[in-house]
Known about the structure:
single chain; two-stranded antiparallel sheet; 3% strand
Amino acid sequence: xxxxxxxxxxxxxxxxxxxxxxxxxxxxxxxxxxxxxxxxxxxxxxxxxxxxxxxxxxxxxxxxxxxxxxxxxxxxxxxxxxxxxxxxxxxxxxxxxxxxxxxxxxxxxxxxxxxxxxxxxxxxxxxxxxxxxxxxxxxxxxxxxxxxxxxxxxx
Length: 155
């Protein structure tokens, strides 16, 4: 991994980039998945800030605030993932595909929650399914469908 000086490793992230080696975590989960996850965390903050701002500002109730927050956060997520994660130029065609995946993921959330309820599991089991499976499946769908071969040549 790195050269040794007196038994100490001299590996660092900087020397790794300069030598062409990949950071250790990319072998496990991949750069794109990590970036996708980080953007998702920021996106959750964007969504939350919009909801709190609209509700606490007395502009609307919680449901319309969440709808507005979903679309604003979705647009943010699209541009951030286009540029940073998948490194493609954003376009309306790509956004339509991205939104389709986002709405499919929303449907998956409802299905997983409903499954847990139907099975009479504790609601936190359903939430755990959503938290674990949702982002992973969303990433795969975005990578293969929304951004796969740049949105299948934007078609």
